[in-house]
Amino acid sequence: MEWGGGGHNLIGIIKGLQIEILENELRMLERLSEFATWVGKYPIPKDYSKKIPKSTPDGGVIPLTYVSIPTDKILIDEMFERFACILEMQRKN
Q1: Spatial distance between the Cα atoms of 24 and 22, rounded to a whole number of angstroms
Q2: Of 19, 25, 30, 81, whose Cβ has the fewest other Cβ atoms within 10 Å?
C-alpha cells in the first residue's frame, strides 16, 4: 500500500485501508498529520506554508497546530476504536 507523505499522511493511510472518514475525523487527522510531520520535533515547520492559517469549522482562522479543543482526546479515542473495529471486521471477512 502506498500512501505518500513519508508515513505522516494519516488521511492517506486511513483511506488506503478502505475506511470512510467522517467530517470531524478528517479535520482531526489533518491536525494530527501536522503534528506528526513537524510539531513534535521542530519549533517551526521547514515549509512556511504550514504556518498559514486555515479556516476552522466554526468560521475562525488559525494554523492547524495552534488549536487544541477540550474534546480532542475523546474524538481521538473514538476514532481509534472505530477504526480498530472496522479493521477487525475486514480481517475476519
Answers
A1: 6
A2: 81
| H or E segment and range at residue 62 | strand 61-62
- Looking at the 3D structure of the chain, how many domains does it have? 1
Which residue segment(s) compose the domain that 68 sits in? Answer: 5-92
Q: What is the pLDDT along the chain (93 residues), one digit of tens a residue?
A: 555 556 678 988 899 889 999 988 998 898 888 777 776 677 777 776 766 667 766 666 666 666 677 788 899 999 999 999 999 999 998
- The C-alpha cell at 63 is 494554523
DSSP secondary structure code for residue 18 in this structure: T
For residue 61, give every residue at least 6 positions away whose Cβ sits within 8 Å of its Cβ, in sequence order, or none: 53, 54, 55
Q: How many Å from the N-terminal Cα to the C-terminal Cα in the chain?
A: 19
